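Database export, one record per block. Field names are fixed; values are copied verbatim from the stored entry.
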Amino acid sequence: MNLQAPSTISTPLYRLFPSPNFNYSLKFCRRTTSSELHSPVAGDSSPSVRTHRVTVHDRQRGLVHQFFVPEDQYILHTAESQNISLPFACRHGCCTSCAVRIKSGQIRQPEALGISAELKSKACKIHLGYALLCVGFPSSDIEVETQDEDEVYWLQFGRYFARGPVERDDYALELAMGDE
């Protein structure tokens, strides 16, 4: 009896054909690029997995990226597989390097530890909250804007630091030193 593990063939879900044309968007008053994607190749994706258009306004680079992401894949990972460079650091949802402000649409992010629940749901007239692209799944077509990491930290922790220096807790220090 000959038992062999089945071989797997890794095929990209989408083929990316970068567009050499640049346009100037009056809305953003800066250079934008657009990546043109073709429909999934037959057999590349399960017919039951929905795909959504993701638009990322990269503030730091002055670019706008548009690409498609299946609902069951991380946005950052899919962007990278299509040669789209977006900010990131840990890839585990623990920092805020890949944090974005959601302008429209919904992102499911159950593993996003780097952003508080309050900040995830912080809605106002101009945005719907914040998300981490490294552990974010699109639930609809979305439009997001990259954020400066310091801005996100201030939004989460600024109220604590704005009160002044944190007081030293000698009792907690004694307990911690006793464990060593």
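Remark 1: The first helix runs from residue 75 to 81.
Remark 2: Residues 1-43 have pLDDT under 50 and may be disordered.
End of record.
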